[in-house]
Amino acid sequence: MFTKNESKELIEVLTYVGDNLGPKINELALKVVECFRNGGKIILMGNGGSAGDAQHIAAEFVGRYKKERVSYPALALNTNTSSLTAIGNDYGYDLTFSRQVEGFAKKGDVVIGISTSGNSSNVYKAMEVAKLKGCYTAALLGKTGGTIKNVVDLPIVVKSNNTPRIQECHIFIGHTLCELVEKEI
């Protein structure tokens, strides 16, 4: 039976995002704008529901969010099942994203990892490789930010222990990012 508890909890977590994460979201938007203006691309990744969020945000940049405009270069590393399964089989699941970052990323790109726990080892390893390649790294995280918060340039942590609420806030942040970038460019 539906109760208002879930919507109340979402409002509480979104209020936290609005009260605390705005400056970090603005910082990420400015980095994305700079990246696009300099001919770079956005690379996103995540597992499970976070994979869906990465794919969704990439699609908003490539297609459009609200405005008719040119396509912005963005890709989600979790969408190519042949790469994921080949890398997972040949090298191990922990390297599914780092191997792709090694192949696709270049200096000046923005690499965004999404992890509700903040502890996804394949996202962590991809952030390490992205930094070595001279990329700006950011992560949408949950709970306490986990280990990933320590390896990225910009951790954006939704402080909740409820995975669905974290994911709902991550897509809100992704949409807000798209809107800020469209307005700025």
Describe the structure.
The protein has 185 residues and is of the alpha/beta class. It has a single domain (18-184), classed as Glucose-6-phosphate isomerase like protein, domain 1 (Rossmann fold), CATH 3.40.50.10490. 52% of the residues lie in helices and 14% in strands. The chain has helices at residues 5-20, 22-37, 49-62, 81-90, 98-104, 121-132, 163-184, and strands at residues 42-46, 74-76, 110-115, 136-142, 154-158. It has a 5-stranded parallel β-sheet, with helices on both faces. Helix 3 (49-62) links the parallel strand 1 (42-46) and strand 2. Helix 2 crosses helix 7. The mean pLDDT is 97.
Question: What attributes does this structure have?
Answer:
single chain, about 180 residues, alpha/beta, Rossmann fold, five-stranded parallel sheet, about 15% strand
- Stated plainly, the CATH topology is called Rossmann fold
Number of spatially distinct domains: 1
Average residue pLDDT: 97
Strand order of the biggest β-sheet: 2-1-3-4-5
> How many β-strand stretches?
5
**How would you classify the quaternary structure?**
single chain
Q: Low-confidence runs (pLDDT<50, min 5 residues)? A: none
Structural class: alpha/beta
Q: What letter string, H or E per element, gives the SSE order?
A: HHEHEHHEHEEH
Helix count?
7
CATH class category label: Alpha Beta
% residues in beta strands: 5-15%
CATH architecture: 3-Layer(aba) Sandwich
The dominant shape is globular
